[in-house]
Design goal:
The protein has 118 residues and is mainly alpha-helical. The chain has a domain at 1-51. The protein contains 7 helices and no strands. It has helices at 7-22, 31-45, 48-51, 54-68, 70-87, 93-97, 103-114. The longest helix is centred in the middle third of the chain and has 18 residues, at 70-87. Mean pLDDT is 56; it is low at 39-52 and 87-93.
């Protein structure tokens, strides 16, 4: 994350950095150590040989962060959905239109389309 300048990766990297700071782990371990500790859960989900990358770990942490903070993020997901449907940007409006008004489904739908797979 420290070396990337790509806009589409910056958001995920910021979430990863926030995760480390928010949990207070940066005071106890180096960021590299935290990544290694979290890697065990990633190994269980993705192929080690093909997908053991910083991006895979960042995606996994971002997914966990969203799910764990669903209530707090409800307003942001609703706002995002409203703007996507309103202006039809990014071609997601047809995808969201097929899903009920359930915040967990909104989140899952958005991540399925907008969050790149590891």
């Amino acid at each position: 994350c420290a070396e990337t300048e790509s806009d589409n990766v910056t958001f995920i990297c910021n979430i990863l950095k926030f995760f480390i700071t928010h949990t207070g782990l940066e005071n106890e371990f180096t960021k590299k150590f935290v990544l290694v500790q979290e890697a065990d859960e990633v190994f269980g989900l993705y192929s080690i040989l093909k997908n053991y990358t910083h991006r895979s770990i960042a995606n996994f942490l971002a997914l966990r962060f969203f799910i764990r903070h669903m209530k707090e993020m409800n307003v942001y997901f609703r706002s995002m959905k409203y703007h996507v449907i309103k202006d039809g940007s990014l071609g997601y409006s047809h995808f969201f239109a097929r899903h009920p008004q359930n915040k967990r489904e909104h989140c899952a739908s958005w991540m399925a389309v907008a969050m790149s797979e590891p």
